Predict the structure.
Amino acid sequence: MSTSTRRNFFGALGSLFKENRGPIRPPYASIAATFNECRSCEGMCVSACEEKIIHRDEKGIPFLDFKANGCSDCHKCMEVCTPNVLSDPDRFIQGRARITSMMCMSHHDTICFSCKDPCLEDAIIFEGMFRPIIIPEKCTACGYCVAVCPNAAIEIVV
Ligand code: SF4
Ligand code: SF4
Ligand code: SF4
């Protein structure tokens, strides 16, 4: 099975084990942000994001999708947000990474450290060679661990 086929298969399987959760909004959203301004905005943050992780829903409200990449904390989305929805440089992505152990290879006795390497915060620890867990206090929700997991076992949750 190719990596993408495997990912799609486990992604479908994972939806059976994952709860329905809300969308993850872009970084730097002010604490009072309602995102109402986004409805009439051209979506400058989407084109400014070089990692291509910002998308918009049918109402024009932006959300993050980490399937291909993570957030580099580059501030570019905030810099182009003239309505100032993204305006707080100290308020990063509101969420945390979560591993669905049912889908994690390492929780089923197969060696895999794919998620550990891109985590610059050292927020993923293993029990010896196996069973990774996320340290919530260390996780910034940057999302770089999501795309690299061959089994789509990691998601960012609110
Ligand atoms: S900080 Fe940079 S990488 Fe992160 S969402 Fe904004 S533009 Fe994209
Ligand atoms: S990359 Fe995925 S399968 Fe591998 S250890 Fe991490 S969560 Fe488990
Ligand atoms: S979201 Fe970022 S900080 Fe959190 S565990 Fe994944 S790579 Fe590490």
Remarks:
- DSSP finds four helices and six strands in the chain.
- The longest strand covers residues 130-134.
